[in-house]
Amino acid sequence: MKIITFVKGKIPLEKTKEFEDEYLKLIKQEKFPEGLIKSNLLKNKNEEGVYKIETIWKSFEAIEEMRSQEKPASIVLFEKFGVSPSVEMYEISESTE
Question: pTM of the full predicted structure?
């Protein structure tokens, strides 16, 4: 079953462009963790500086395998900007796909 994760944090306003640029660098890399299907950077339109990184994974096992080898890149990205993000994980029970 597919899993979706949300990593959320508030970036200082003077650093938002740099944060977005760093995310772009991450998604342009050639090798992603096994089982990563898709990742999106979401920008809150009601609260400036609030971002979520939404990632869809093939399975919970794929996430566990990645975590056994490295800290998730989405968390590292927020931490690089001095933010300790919140993390949520959901099982995708139904989808339009």
Answer: 0.92
Distance (Å, rounded) from C-alpha 70 to C-alpha 31? Answer: 14
Instruction: Assign 3-class secondary structure to the chain.
Output: CCEEEEEEEECCHHHHHHHHHHHHHHHCCCCCCCCEEEEEEEECCCCCCEEEEEEEECCHHHHHHHHHHCCCHHHHHHHHCCCCCEEEEEECCCCCC
Instruction: Show the tokens assigned to 41.
Output: 């950077």
Return all residues near 32 (Cβ < 8 A) that are at least 6 apart: none
Q: Using one digit for the tens of pLDDT, what is the confidence trace for 24-71?
A: 999 998 788 999 999 999 999 999 999 999 999 999 999 999 999 989
Q: What is the pLDDT of residue 77?
A: 97
87 near 6, Cβ under 8 Å? yes
